[in-house]
Amino acid sequence: MISVYERVENLALDSKNTTFTTIAKQILSDFNEGIFRNQNELSDICFVSMSTVTQFSKATLCEGYKELTIRLKIEYENRMLVKPIRDAENVDELSLQVLEIINAWAIDAKEFILSLAKEINQKKRIWIAPSSQSLPATRNLHDILLNQGVDVKLMDSSTNLEVARHFDFKNELVLMVVTGRDTLTLQRILEYLEKLSRKVYIITTLNHAEEIPVVDGWNILYLNLNKYTDYKYKLHALNTLYFYWVKKLITNQ
Fold first, then answer.
1. Closest by alpha carbon to 170, among 193, 189, 195, 197?
2. For the chain, how many helices (H) and strands (E)?
3. What is the pLDDT of residues 74-86, one digit of tens each?
4. What is the pLDDT of residues 24-41, one digit of tens each?
């Protein structure tokens, strides 16, 4: 059964209703910090009416914002209850195990890294389209590449579908980073790129394997971290991969 958090997350990825998207993203951001605003505070910070917040709440299948807040608090508290179980483990051993898995995955991606570094060294230009979940790590990559003199176009693929529809990607280098649940918008962008570009690199999870079209010349790297599927591990893995990539890019090795 889909959780209320997931319903809010889906609304955050729905580019058809930008008002609901704004509200959803604010709620998700607050949730991660353990913040639960009242309806008046949320309407003020999102610059929407309180009735719009109520309509949003009903879109999550709740009677109103009060029920939405209560259910989100319950889900947040349930997540917190899992922590004591993890704290009982050997923290140092667990941390080392995660780092080893992430590092091994990034090193195994050597062929993908070298190929992408070679392409960008030749073109000095790249379009990067991350999903919402992978956007924080990819923003860091964007800034690093800019400092290296690379022309980087960062496209928030959860909201900028129109860019993909009206730009000729025939000779463009494109990196897609698909690690969240926002599959519908990303799938539509991939279908568009399939018709235009043969220089597409994709980083995604095994959950999205069936959604990626088979296109000659596309390079796909699957983010497989065994049991460590939480978003924080994915972000760390992406940062590790980007580090190796930028290193190869700078040294041209």
1. 197
2. 12, 5
3. 888 887 665 554 4
4. 999 998 888 888 999 999
